[in-house]
Amino acid sequence: MFTPVDTRIPHEVEGQVHSIYRRLFPEGDRPFVQRAFEWGSQCFNGRFDNYQAIDARYHDLEHTLQGTLCLARLLGNRHVAGAEPRINQKWFELALLAILFHDTGYLKRRGDQEGTGAKYTLIHVARSADFAREFLSQHGYSPEDLAAIANMISCTGVNADLNAIPFRSETERLCGYALATADLLGQMAARDYVEKLPILYQEFTEAARYSGPHSGRITAYKSPEELMRETPAFWQNYVLPKINNDFQKLYLFLNDPYPDGPNHYLDRIQQNLVRLTGVTASRAVAP
Question: pLDDT tens digit string along 245-260?
Answer without folding.
Answer: 999 999 999 999 999 9
